[in-house]
Amino acid sequence: MLTLYRNARLCTLDGAYGWGLIDEGALLAEGDMLRWVGPESELPSDVVAARTHDLGGDLVTPGLVDCHTHLVYGGQRADEFEQRLNGASYEDIARTGGGIRATVRATRAASDAELLAATRERTRTLMHAGVTTVEIKSGYGLSLEHEARCLRAARKVGQELPLTVRTTCLSAHTLPPEFEGRADDYIDAVCTWLPQLKAEGLVDAVDAFCERIAFTPAQTGRVFDAARALGLPVKLHAEQLSDQGGAALAARYGALSCDHLEYLDPQGIAAMARAGSVAVLLPGAFYFLRETRLPPVAALREAGVPIALATDHNPGSSPTLNPLLMLNMACTLFRLTPEEALRGFTVNGARALGLHDRGQLAAQQRADFVAWPLHHPNELSYWLGSNPACRVFIGGQEV
Ligand SMILES: N=CN[C@@H](CCC(=O)O)C(=O)O
Ligand SMILES: [Zn+2]
Q1: pLDDT tens, 108-158?
Q2: Domain containing 109: what range?
Q3: Are 302 and 225 within one domain?
Q4: Is 242 annotated in some ligand binding site?
Q5: Could you tell me the EC number(s) of this protein (predicted)?
């Protein structure tokens, strides 16, 4: 059954460059896939659509892809925000039992129902802001039982809501207190959990935090070996607070993406370019932690590394559910162009998840799109902190 969506100003992002604007455009979908995209005047004359939607002249973009989030957690960390404003650093707080470990305590204390309800609410907020595909990481459970609970909550939300949820196992996020002084033993344990979590259908990818306050490159490599043995793709929190050579390591495993990257060096960039890994930049965390070291955007561009953006929603370093604010911050803080920012939150975000059937408006792409009451796509990164009332279509259905 064909459905026609007409009277739209399309921003297709089709091709490698440019907005791909089509005035008075139309989309034709069959089921959840686009079959034809173009000017309404060129719609094939033999098309008989069973249903027609008038999009009222709105700007229509591909659905947003939030490719890096930590949406499953208990509690919040406003107290640490206050501590940092009184002089403590993110690393100081982490080293004294706060930070990720504080959220691990709150997550373990939350019931299954509370975790599910909180995750559902956060995901729903993102969806109504234009997100049609979201990645959700574990990483605040840090035991087999609690990591499984977090990943189940993410999977359940993907079954309950119409958007696509991709799950990532981030058990190597930080060392849980019961393994204090035994980081290698903890990594051994994580490597034994992965087959069980995968067997339950809970894991689409594997991630780790390679950093002074988390795991070494050698420990990260062991997690990646275990992922590779299971045929699972990897991603990495790399070079956020220091240069550990994490991106180059991840690239050797063909990583889908390396994320954060403020301290990425030229060797890391070259390795990512060779491996085809996406650079996921996270302006929310950069802003919220008041980082000063900028990710090497110009060098990434020059090397042809695709750049994606994400909210990185988490309670410690990026407590935002506002994708358009991330577009604005990527432009103002990282000097991305508005077009690069939108590509980062659509087609390149999809690539960072290994998905090639979404992120552009073109035939054979999913019918995931957003109708915005705006005239030009550069406004998506312009209206600072406000969210235009958008209409979100996932698989051709308005949500
Ligand atoms: N960098 C590591 N992980 C998260 C923050 C975790 C936290 O502070 O709770 C991030 O992506 O920013
Ligand atoms: Zn993260």
Answers
A1: 999 999 999 999 999 999 999 999 999 999 999 999 999 999 999 999 999
A2: 64-352
A3: yes
A4: no
A5: 3.5.2.7
Å from CA of 68 to ligand 2 middle: 6
Ligand 1-lining residues (CB < 6 angstroms): 70, 99-100, 103, 209, 237, 240, 285, 312, 314-318
pLDDT of residue 387: 87
Please name the amino acid found at residue 255: A
The residue contributing the CA closest to ligand 1 atom 8 is 316
Pocket test for ligand 1, best of 68, 96, 100 (most atoms within 8 A of CB): 100
Consecutive H or E run containing 227: helix 217-229
**pLDDT tens string 304-333:** 999 999 999 999 999 999 999 999 999 999
Burial of 294 (0-12, 13-18, 19+ CB in 10 A): middle
* Residue 270 CA, ligand 1 centroid: distance in Å: 25
Is the Cβ–Cβ distance between 209 and 174 less than 8 Å?
yes
Structural domain count of the chain = 2
Complex prediction ipTM: 0.97
**Annotated binding residue at 317?**
yes
Are residues 271 and 191 located together in one domain of the fold?
A: yes
Say whether 159 counts as a known binding-site residue: no
Residue type, 114: E
Q: How far is CA 281 from CA 71, 85, 189, 265, in A?
A: 18, 24, 30, 15
Confidence at residue 386, expressed as pLDDT on a 0 to 100 scale: 86
pTM: 0.98
Does 111 show up as a binding residue in the annotation?
no
**Closest atom, ligand 1, to C-alpha of 315:** 9
**Closest ligand 1 atom number to CA of residue 68:** 11
| Residues 134 and 175 occupy one common structural domain | yes
Same domain, 344 and 365: no
> Based on the domain organization, do 301 and 365 belong to the same domain?
no
- How far is the centre of ligand 1, averaged over its atoms, from the C-alpha of 138 (Å)? 11
